[in-house]
Design brief:
alpha/beta, globular, 5-stranded mixed sheet, 12 strands, disordered N terminus, D-Maltodextrin-Binding Protein, domain 2, 348 residues
């Protein structure tokens, strides 16, 4: 960041008598004194996986100088298979972490003083995938089919689908995050992430049929910003600046060149932190977010990127409590704080 100079003019009267009634000499400015640059508030944030397009708004805020303009020095830490963002947050190793709405509700369930202060994704990007032409036209068509589901999903959204659509646990087989079983068996359905597995399948010659989990009524927030209650209380103004700059970064990143914004530097940061993230996969993930309304749908259309409402939280808790994922009597209002969002930033 360039050094800002503050000029202090020393008013020295130079008295020189060149003759009777001679005027005072012109006052000369003292040499400019370089001042220290303004102090930036340090903030650390860990994502939920390796750098990718689905984290693009954070990297845009970094690359475009939005965080520094907000008086922040932000450390973006990528997640990964050996990184547990929630543990880093609970252990005080980071100021904030990326999570989801269900994680924030589980903080309440476990009586842990952490909560959600913003939700970038109005729709979770979890999907179910099937080979084309095999009859996956809606969630009710999952009946009787073998579904590959990971361990976390089996404890969260699978019970919701099972109860709502009359499915059975006997249909489930483990998803190991390898595409080979699915490619070898056209009858299988598997879980995936909208900006990832469909891209891999297309490269393998399969144009999958896709069901977005959100469309089943599983209204989990995605890419949330979670924080400790104590940190929020002591640094609320700093956290507010972080959220504002982040939401502006997401607005720029998703509009991209069509909206007059250069995202090249942000994508370069993503590739630096994750060399396995090529340009075409970044472009695909960005397109999927825009086409599916992952960020700019629901409450965000009126309230801006990052929007949350009490009604949306109430509805989601009721849906997952009805199938036993969470207790019905959970004090779900403790899972979030609405005071730093809903400012209309990037409103569609």
């Amino acid at each position: 960041m360039p050094v800002r100079h503050h000029f202090v003019v020393s008013r020295r009267a130079a008295l020189g008598l060149l003759g009777a009634g001679a005027p005072l000499l012109a006052q000369a400015p003292a040499p400019a004194r370089a001042q220290s640059p303004p102090r930036l508030d340090r903030v650390s944030f860990v994502t939920n996986w390796r750098a990718q397009a689905e984290h693009g708004g954070f990297y845009q805020a970094q690359a475009a100088g939005l965080y520094r303009r907000a008086g922040l020095e932000v450390e973006l830490r990528p997640g990964g298979p050996q990184v547990n963002p929630a543990q880093l947050l609970l252990g005080g190793r980071v100021d904030m972490s990326m999570g989801n709405g269900l994680a924030a509700l589980n903080f309440v369930r476990q009586d842990i003083p952490f909560l959600c202060v913003g939700a970038v994704f109005q729709k979770d990007m979890q999907v179910l995938l099937a080979h084309p032409g095999t009859g996956l036209t809606g969630f009710e068509t999952l009946r009787g089919r073998t579904v590959l589901v990971g361990a976390e999903a089996r404890a969260t959204w699978w019970p919701f689908l099972r109860e709502k659509y009359g499915l059975r646990d006997e249909q489930v087989r483990p998803y190991t995050f390898s595409m080979q079983p699915f490619l070898a068996d056209r009858t299988l359905v598997q879980q995936g992430y909208l900006g990832s597995e469909p891209f891999t399948l297309r490269a393998a010659g399969v144009e999958p049929d896709t069901l977005l989990l959100h469309d089943a009524g599983f209204e989990n927030f995605g890419t949330t910003i979670n924080i400790g209650a104590r940190t929020l209380a002591s640094r609320r103004e700093v956290v507010g600046r972080f959220l504002d700059a982040t939401m502006e970064g997401w607005d720029q990143y998703l509009k991209g060149a069509a909206g007059g914004f250069d995202t090249g530097a942000a994508n370069a940061l993503i590739r630096t932190q994750n060399p396995e993230m090529p340009d075409d996969l970044i472009a695909f993930g960005t397109r999927m977010m825009n086409e599916a309304g992952i960020v700019r749908s629901g409450d965000a259309a009126a309230l801006g990127i990052g929007a949350m409402t009490e009604e949306r939280w109430r509805r989601f808790h009721a849906a997952v409590a009805a199938v036993g994922v969470l207790p019905r009597d959970l004090d779900w209002r403790r899972a979030f704080d609405l005071s730093l969002v809903n400012k209309g930033i990037g409103r569609a």
